[in-house]
Recover the amino acids of this structure.
């Protein structure tokens, strides 16, 4: 086990921001961290792209120490790409803040990724999945984690973890839905609980957490060491503080606008105009359920600058 293994040092239960492509960028991770998220997963990046087009991919994986512990997630199917990708990260240490951990994606259902034998397709190819994990473990000093689904094809997460049980994987986030379920339907808590019998590292249960109550219910039913939250944090990053304090927070419009604006300012600082364009969806999530939300949304989907955001959220 790597001696820089932050996983062992964090207080349990762990409340993690789950990886989200196109969403969990540096600005959003910082906001979630400020509200108490313990571990911040980012946006998945292609191991092959990191090897062949490092500049753009390094940009995607860039982080700030304020986000630590930050986990860079890679997808792909070729062990050699993964080996080279994690070595490349280490070689860029001078210009690039090293992530605090590396995660491997075994759950993505997106056809473009699945067709490459990556994501959820790699989960059902145990032999190759094992080679990929070994390639990462053998080429980085960082703790390595994996993200699985309850089941992909004939392979469930228990078979998968059993097949990898001798490998020093630090943590596994298990999205308790099968590939066939996609992103909806019930989360299999029982299978996450059973995973304990097949895996010695930290288990993070994932799926369907929209409130602090959901999080504690999932922890209780799965006996996991933590939870991963994805959609529940959209427009509601304070969910992390609600979980930490075990107390729901009722927020008025003014307070929500203040948080949204802070997020937009950070997005602009980090990505300039592009940051504001990418903020549009976050802004719509922030105003969800507020009086006049639909009118605000029609303006928010068109914002081009921080001024535009301020004019709508004033
Ligand atoms: C927009 C979006 C992007 C996602 N991107 C990733 C990703 O890059 N890597 C990954 O492993 N999972 C990704 N996921 C899956 C989430 O991490 C999580 O497993 C799933 O949404 C279930 O959790 P939830 O019910 O809390 O949303 C994504 C989910 C959404 C909604």
């Amino acid at each position: 086990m790597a001696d820089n293994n932050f996983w062992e040092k964090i207080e349990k239960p762990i409340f993690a921001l789950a990886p989200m492509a196109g969403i969990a960028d540096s600005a959003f991770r910082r906001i979630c961290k400020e509200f108490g998220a313990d571990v911040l997963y980012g946006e998945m990046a292609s191991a092959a792209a990191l090897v062949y087009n490092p500049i753009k991919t390094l940009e995607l994986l860039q982080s700030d120490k304020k986000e630590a512990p930050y986990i860079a997630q890679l997808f792909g199917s070729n062990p050699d790409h993964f080996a080279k990708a994690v070595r490349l990260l280490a070689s860029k240490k001078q210009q690039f803040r090293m992530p605090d951990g590396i995660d491997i994606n075994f759950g993505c259902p997106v056809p473009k990724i699945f067709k490459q034998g990556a994501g959820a397709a790699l989960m059902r190819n145990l032999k190759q999945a094992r080679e990929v994990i070994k390639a990462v473990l053998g080429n980085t000093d960082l703790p390595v984690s994996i993200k699985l689904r309850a089941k992909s094809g004939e392979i469930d997460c228990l078979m998968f973890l059993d097949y990898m049980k001798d490998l020093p994987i630090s943590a596994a986030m298990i999205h308790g839905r099968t590939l066939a379920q996609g992103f909806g339907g019930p989360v299999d808590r029982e299978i996450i609980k059973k995973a304990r019998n097949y895996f010695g590292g930290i288990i993070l249960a994932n799926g369907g957490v929209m409130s602090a109550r959901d999080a504690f219910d999932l922890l209780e039913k799965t006996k996991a060491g933590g939870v991963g939250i994805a959609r529940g944090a959209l427009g509601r990053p304070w969910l992390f503080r609600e979980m930490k304090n075990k107390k729901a927070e009722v927020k008025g419009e003014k307070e929500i606008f203040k948080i949204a604006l802070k997020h937009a300012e950070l997005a602009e600082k980090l990505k300039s105009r592009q940051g504001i364009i990418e903020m549009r969806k976050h802004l719509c999530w922030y105003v969800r359920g507020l009086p006049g939300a639909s009118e605000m949304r029609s303006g928010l989907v068109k914002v081009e600058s921080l001024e535009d955001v301020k004019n709508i959220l004033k």
Notes: The chain has two domains: 6-245, 253-312. Residues 253-312 form a domain with the Non-ribosomal Peptide Synthetase Peptidyl Carrier Protein; Chain A fold (CATH 1.10.1200).
